[in-house]
Write a structure and sequence with these properties.
heterodimer; A: alpha+beta; Butyryl-Coa Dehydrogenase, subunit A, domain 1; Butyryl-CoA Dehydrogenase, subunit A, domain 2; Butyryl-CoA Dehydrogenase, subunit A, domain 3; 3 domains; 3-stranded mixed sheet; B: alpha/beta; Rossmann fold; 9-stranded mixed sheet; two-stranded antiparallel sheet; 6 helices; binds flavin-adenine dinucleotide
Chain lengths: 392, 259
């Protein structure tokens, strides 16, 4: 296949600034040179190339929208384009960057003390240190408000008890942002460092999705942390949801990257694969699939671009992020499935990137609020009726 | 120490170059433009020299139309301090000698102690500008360098240039022109901070008249561009291996006259 040259049917390129384009291209080149040559082997082995953390840090992708602390201070459209390009490589790569930026650096930046910011943000920005975000629990996924993990005041600190599950980068993280309830029943965020007694991790194996990404369980058993490790400036579900809103924004862009990768590959394949004496691209049914893909990708691109402009203007509403996350991941997943179909048997082997994206996007559909949960968020917004707790 | 790096914008390596309706030019529609890869080695080396010495200035220069500014922005994003864009319709079809003369005029104004460039631009592969520039300036030149070390007081540079089967090592007095071969270094990626920082750096626009180039007379002119002839299809020799090998040898000897 020829080198990826981007997917732009509607001249959307022209809606980007020079800086935004250059940033996208820099990340695209990086992914092409540093990541794509090794992704298949990591996908097979079920490992994430952790050695890329400092390299991603050097490139400047971690906390790229933050000001100060060695961060690049980019706008949100540029940040979105970075996520798009990383996920064009692999959802696991984008996840690593999403977690580090949106779910770890963002809460420290937005809710942390000055000491917490000074200590963690510079080293998370360079990729010297890795972070993870622990919200989901074995029995509490879509409904994190009913979490069981507890933080009890005791002496000059807190004692954590509970389990977090499905935590990206859990076992390689130097610091975990853990959400737990205090005795007042409110949710607070805590920074737990690797090696703290009572804190252990276990990796989840047997994944068919996000194989090139580490997913772990975090266990806290009478884990004592100092008072200074509590994020002082946020209380309640608002804290983790504020983080998820950042990360979901990145996912909405990332999904476009995954879809672009599958479309570009399937198009080239269809033009080269000969059956019945013709390239399969010459058959109407195959064209129909490719046309559906490019149309949906174009719509998704416009959706996130406007989303980014709203975010940069400061007028973004979380429900708008839900719409983009819901829609873009769905069309990316459908694009990947169609691309898989177009490649025939070739579509099931990792010599081609399609099945890897397709399987990854199953996770992307689920995490950070499932597709249906986002539908409920938008539904509540437009009808004024909450359908989450129905029947309860 | 001040270093000037000459860079050129060229079509992306993946581009399928087509000849335009004007048979002396290529069709530039839809081309993605990049910094010529050998020039990236030159930029990287200049930045390393500056970093190693702890001080200095790296100035990127290009000759080209408006779009060539992107190349300078990439150079600035990698870390060059400022840039000069020789942008004049009168130089639109500059041949290598004209380019060398224009660059020489820039060098005279800037007075760097070293000029670095790529061993060739990957568009026309002429590989002439570096040596011609040195000639116009009356400076020494080493082409296709694989390594360099500049002495502490920046009087001479020791270079290793690639020759068949080894390195040829020279000591060259500065100022000099050096052209970079692949392997000289591993160019850095422009970082996102670098890209943002590049916005604040100066790109000076320069016309032929600013360089005192009054009459521009190219030494070369293009008569025509021709596409490569289509490759004849391959031939599969069927049958038993023994017979097939015989036929292959016969065909190589008699039809292709290759052996
Ligand atoms: C690879 C991977 C990485 C992850 N990384 C992280 C991480 O780093 N940190 C973290 O905290 N979490 C992480 N997660 C967890 C993820 O966010 C949760 O899986 C997600 O929130 C869904 O929760 P659940 O799996 O418990 O599904 P459930 O909540 O049990 O949902 C199951 C199904 O029920 C549906 N459903 C639930 N409630 C409703 C309702 N009210 N109405 C209609 N339908 C409903 C859902 O849409 C879904 O289809 C990760 C997950 C994966 C797979």
């Amino acid at each position: 296949m020829e080198k990826f040259r981007g997917v732009d049917y509607y001249g959307i390129e022209g809606l980007l600034s020079d800086d935004e384009r250059m940033i996208r291209d820099a990340v695209r080149d990086w992914v092409e040179a540093e990541f794509l040559p090794i992704v298949a082997e990591h996908h097979r082995a079920g490992t994430f190339p952790v050695q890329l953390f400092p390299k991603l840090g050097e490139l400047g992708v971690f906390g790229a929208t933050l000001k100060g602390y060695g961060c690049a201070g980019l706008n949100n459209v540029a940040y979105g384009l970075i996520m798009q390009e990383l996920e064009r490589g692999d959802s696991g790569l984008r996840s690593a960057a999403s977690v580090q930026s949106g779910l770890v650096m963002h809460p420290i930046y937005a809710y942390g003390s000055e000491e917490q910011k000074d200590r963690w943000l510079p080293v998370l920005a360079t990729g010297e240190k890795i972070g993870c975000f622990g919200l989901t629990e074995p029995d509490h996924g879509s409904d994190p408000g009913s979490m069981k993990t507890r933080a009890r005041r005791s002496g000059d600190g807190y004692v954590l008890n509970g389990t977090k599950l499905w935590i990206t980068n859990g076992s390689v993280a130097d610091v975990a942002v853990v959400w737990a309830k205090e005795d007042d029943g409110e949710i607070y965020g805590f920074l737990v460092e690797r090696g703290t007694p009572g804190f252990s991790t276990l990796d989840i194996h047997g994944k068919f999705s996000m194989r090139a990404s580490i997913t772990s369980e975090l266990a806290f058993q009478d884990c004592r942390i100092p008072l200074a490790n509590k994020l002082p400036n946020v209380k309640g579900l608002r804290g983790p949801l504020g983080c998820l809103n950042q990360a979901r924004y990145g996912i909405a862009w990332g999904a476009v990257g995954g879809a672009m990768a599958c479309y570009d590959w399937a198009l080239q394949y269809a033009q080269q694969r000969i059956q019945f004496g013709k390239p399969i691209a010459a058959f109407q049914l195959v064209q129909q699939k490719l046309v559906w893909m490019i149309t949906e990708i174009t719509k998704a691109q416009l959706l996130v671009l406007q989303l980014g402009r709203l975010k940069d203007a400061g007028s973004l509403r979380p429900q708008q992020v839900s719409m983009a996350k819901m829609n873009n991941v769905q069309i990316a997943l459908d694009t990947a499935r169609l691309a898989r179909d177009i490649l025939g048997a070739a579509g099931i082997v990792d010599e081609h990137p399609i099945i890897r994206h397709m399987l990854n996007l199953e996770t992307v559909n689920t995490y950070e609020g499932t597709h249906d949960i986002h539908a409920l968020i938008i539904g509540r917004d437009i009808t004024g009726v909450d359908a989450f707790g129905i029947g309860s | 120490m001040k270093i000037l790096v000459a860079v050129k914008q060229v079509p992306d390596t993946a581009t399928q170059v087509k000849i335009s309706s004007d048979p002396k030019a290529i069709d530039t529609a839809g081309i993605t433009w990049i910094v010529s890869p050998y020039d990236e080695f030159a930029i990287e080396e200049a930045l390393r020299i500056k970093e190693k010495r702890g001080q200095g200035e790296v100035v990127a220069v290009t000759l080209g139309p408006d779009r060539a500014k992107e190349t300078l922005r990439s150079a600035l994003a990698m870390g060059c301090d400022r840039a000069i864009h020789v942008n004049d319709p009168a130089l639109a079809n500059a041949d290598t000698m004209t380019t060398a003369r224009a660059l020489a005029a820039v060098v005279k104004q800037e007075a760097p102690q070293l000029v670095l460039c790529g061993r060739q631009a990957i568009d026309d592969d002429a590989g002439a500008v570096g040596a011609q520039l040195a000639e116009v300036l009356g400076w020494p030149c080493a082409s296709w360098i694989m390594e360099e070390t500049i002495d502490a007081d920046a009087k001479t540079v020791r270079v290793g240039r690639q020759v068949e089967g080894g390195l040829e090592v020279f000591d060259i007095p500065l100022p000099a022109v050096l052209s970079a071969q692949k392997g000289l270094n591993e160019p850095r990626y422009p970082t996102l901070k670098g890209i943002m920082g590049a916005k604040k750096k100066e790109i000076k626009d320069v016309k032929a008249s600013d360089l005192g180039l009054s009459s521009i007379t190219p030494e070369l002119s293009i008569t025509a561009l021709e596409a490569l002839p289509a490759r004849p299809p391959g031939r599969i020799i069927p049958g038993d291996v023994k017979d097939a090998v015989k036929e292959l040898v016969r065909s190589l000897r008699e039809d292709a006259k290759a052996i």
